[in-house]
Amino acid sequence: MTFDIKEVPCQRKDNGKKLFLTKCTSMATEPSKHIILLHGLTLTQHVWDIEWKDYSVTRFLATEGYTVWRLDAGGFGRSERYECGWDCTTDNAVLDVITAIETIRDHLGIADLKIDIMGWSWGTMVGSRTAIRKPDMVRRLVMVAPVTGGSFKSYPEGSYKEDKAVISYDWIGRLFRYSLTGGDEIAAEANPQEGDDVDYVITERPVVGIAFQNVVHYDMTDARPQGSTIEIYYHQDEWLIDGPAILCPSEIIVGTDDVYSTPERIKELYEALPEGSESHTLWGAGHGMFFEKDYYKKFQQFVINFLNK
Questions:
Q1: Of the CATH numbers 3.40.50.1110, 1.20.1250.20, 1.10.3720.10, 3.40.50.1820, which one belongs to the domain with range 3-307?
Q2: Residue-range domain boundaries for the chain
Q3: pLDDT at position 20, please?
Q4: What pLDDT is recorded for position 26?
Q5: Please, where are the H alpha helices in the chain?
Q6: Cβ(294)–Cβ(182) under 8 Å?
Q7: Which pLDDT score, from 0 to 100, does residue 6 have?
């Protein structure tokens, strides 16, 4: 099947920042099916389009009839940079998503369009807050490897330094499970110099290579802004996703080897979600389950089964 991927102009009205928004369609596209994919902190929208075998989430959804929209949050990837990386907060990214959905509505000429949102990692914080703030814009929400808070000890308040408002991408390998002995991603974040071996039994070598290549090509013109890391690493005792405030049917997909949530938090989050919500656990999967050869197909099926209801 052939795919048509193109950029759609998108710009914030409040601060004038240009956002990189793309649209993917195929011969199977159905006019009523739209989804926007939100990236995490480590990789931008290309994370959803690993062109190896059938790993690409973007192309999988397109073959299932979806118009697939992807957004680089402000300050990330190919979206316009900010002078200070601390300004690229989760709440600022929510405004980016709202702008993108408004752009999609204008592009399609459908003023009341409700769109599906799927976020990964930090994108679950962004997506859930968008659904809470604009329930009239969101049909269904998928939270992949949600960052709930409460999964590790918070860093000391105020210990971050102003000169680290951005951080380089040279430690990107920590994303892949077991990049350090024991697969401790939090330790890898804090000590990126301590080993960079990838377990190619879990994640196929071409998948890793394509992800690295995309980072170099799309992301390394600058460094990753750090605004949202204050919440994730310095406020772990708090809830980073407000489950009771989410009104749309929502899906949780999480791996048992993911360090950014706990079974207790996932259970509590799921119980707070509205009727029609689902929660799925992939036993043995890590934070980047859709990269992992034993889990990516199961992940894809969980997603499409939920979206088609």
A1: 3.40.50.1820
A2: 3-307
A3: 98
A4: 97
A5: 57-63, 90-108, 122-133, 185-190, 205-214, 229-234, 263-272, 296-307
A6: no
A7: 98
